[in-house]
Design brief:
single chain; 5-stranded antiparallel sheet; binds flavin mononucleotide; disordered C terminus; Beta-Lactamase
């Protein structure tokens, strides 16, 4: 289970942060908890240009990809701190980030009441239409007398508080798992299509079963993403070691939310040109993850030219670049075995994982290329 935990203050020293660090450690066998800081977010301002909302976008993506959220709130003047309120405004403004997201609330205060009033307000806010989260009912974690609760290493010293945390976290764990959204995007969806995997689909040029189609897409040496005609991210191939890591929680999201604000205008102009029919293919080359990554956007159209969506076709072409540099496409000596010649150089590019997929990549890539090299391949 993947959870995000939000530190609800911008203070450099915070007992609530220490509490979340303790929970991350204490519940490490049950959940992978990533701690996020509201102090990373700019103060909420609906007029802030997209280019300055990179942290908001990052928060949004992290929460989208998490199965649930823990919020640790201090209490300031019987309310939640302004920094947390501002963060929640970002998460609700033009975004569905918190919608139906399971949320657990915890809090530590210096006084005896353990943030009870701040937590009550926070529950109310999370139920507002634009946040609309699934807040864990009951199971209050109200920790007072902050200065006496933790030892110098950040461990909770009061066994009653540890029990309270364990009971509430166990309830939250069950709550997250029973959440419909969690079940809908269960990992089984990644490998098991909803219809029978034996069903055959008849194409003009042959037939394939659903299972075969799925596994062909997953075996391709390039990763595929598909954005449908309504600009919703609707599919990604489950290729190992993807350059762009995707999550099933993103499926069905507006494609804008899958791109950093800085990149979005470029991507949008590509989609617009595909819809207008002014172009069908755009390629970009960029260094990414230490790889030479080749990104291709293709307009996918029906037989009548109607726009069905955009396929993003992405892969590391470092191995191909090496082959070109080595003159592997300049012709083989008579009698040489082209396949063997190519596979000898699997280790030539250190950043490239070796393996059958990469051997296939050399052939598949040139085969898929738009360029005139295609003909040369056929003669080799
Ligand atoms: C502006 C301000 C207002 C506060 N108001 C309250 C309050 O209403 N109730 C309370 O129990 N503690 C209050 N406190 C004390 C906090 O409980 C204490 O600073 C606590 O350590 C804050 O949590 P943190 O350590 O995670 O930042 C307030 C602190 C500040 C700075």
């Amino acid at each position: 289970m993947k959870l995000v935990a939000i530190v609800g203050t911008n203070a450099d020293f915070s007992y609530n942060r220490i509490l979340l660090q303790y929970m991350k450690w204490h519940f490490r066998m049950a959940a992978d908890i990533e701690i996020l800081e509201v102090k990373q977010l700019p103060p909420f301002n609906e007029d802030l240009p997209d280019s300055e909302q990179t942290e908001v976008w990052r928060f949004n993506t992290k929460i989208n990809n998490a199965d649930g959220v823990i919020i640790a709130t201090p209490e300031y003047d019987h309310s939640i701190p302004a920094a947390l309120k501002s963060g929640l405004e970002w998460l609700s403004f033009n975004r569905d980030t918190m919608k139906e997201k399971p949320v657990m609330i915890v809090g530590v205060s210096y006084g005896t009441q353990g943030t009870s009033r701040a937590q009550q307000q926070l529950r109310q806010m999370l139920l507002s239409p634009d946040l609309n989260s699934d807040v864990l009912p009951g199971n209050e974690v109200l920790i007072g007398n902050a200065a006496k609760v933790f030892d110098k290493n950040g461990f909770v010293t009061d066994i009653n508080i540890v029990h309270n945390l364990e009971t509430s976290f166990t309830a939250f764990n069950k709550f997250v798992k029973s959440n419909m959204r969690y079940l809908e995007r269960g990992d089984d969806n990644m490998t098991e299509p909803h219809i029978s995997s034996d069903a055959k689909i008849q194409f003009r040029t042959g037939s394939l079963s659903i299972k075969e189609i799925q596994q062909i897409f997953n075996t391709l040496p390039f990763e595929i993403d598909f954005i449908d005609a309504n600009d919703e991210f609707s599919y990604f191939s489950d290729k190992p070691n993807r350059e762009h890591v995707r999550h099933t929680a993103e499926i069905g999201e507006p494609v804008q939310q899958c791109h950093p604000p800085k990149v979005w205008p470029i991507v949008k102009s590509i989609f617009d040109s595909f819809k207008l029919g002014t172009q069908d293919h755009v390629e970009r080359c960029l260094p990414l993850n230490g790889h030479k990554v080749w990104i291709n956007y293709f307009a996918v159209r029906d037989e009548n030219g109607k726009y069905l969506g955009t396929m993003e076709f992405t892969g590391n072409v470092g191995h191909l670049v090496t082959l070109v540099k080595e003159g592997k496409f300049d012709g083989f000596p008579e009698g040489a075995d082209a396949t063997t010649g190519a596979s000898k150089h699997d280790d030539a590019e250190p950043e490239q994982p070796a393996g059958p997929a990469m051997n296939a990549q050399a052939d598949a890539t040139t085969g898929a290329s738009e360029h005139s090299d295609e003909d040369e391949d056929k003669t080799e």
